[in-house]
Amino acid sequence: MKEFETKALASAFDSSVFGARMAMRAAIRGRPPAVELREWELNHGLALAIGSAASSGPLVREVDGVAAAFVAAGGVDGINGALKLLERWVGSKLGLWEGQCLAKVAGSQGARARALVACLAVQADVCSAAFVARYFRRAKATLCEQMATARQRLEDQQLLETPMLDILAEAVRLKGRRGCCTHEVSCAGDEAVPGER
Description:
Elements: H1 7-13, H2 17-29, H3 34-43, E1 49-51, E2 59-61, H4 65-73, H5 78-93, H6 107-123, H7 129-135, H8 140-152, H9 154-160, H10 164-175, H11 185-188
Antiparallel strand pairs: 1-2
Helix pairs in contact: 1-2, 3-4, 4-5, 4-10, 5-6, 5-10, 6-8
């Protein structure tokens, strides 16, 4: 029977045995950041992702991988928080002014932005296109048509090919800025933009 070799592990913390033991104890004693803990819980099935949209009941589902990272970074808002992160990122890439709520953006620019958010949410397995449609208070069929158009548009293809973890990192940086859409009462309480489904 082979004995466990501790030198490699200890050398990662300190060169002396005493220093390595102290550093390991401090690392074990320290609580991981809330986002990392939440992501770990989601990845291991110890927590479920929860979202709520418009007039439907709550969405409760298991997530892992990139979806778990987005939901954890979205904070207490769960799936809705993950969608808010995607909204911020898409809005920044399309040059929308900071804080502009994508649910309120009318015309082709708003439709394109919402379609990109839906494509990314589905791609990351955060939620279904149907949930994104309810989140934005739009018809699922219309949003799905717009998603298909976005997947064919060259400049949108480039955005959709961005690695999801890069999107997450940039969205979290944007989250720290003031004036970003919060989709609270001001957005979610409003009806769909007239002339759009």
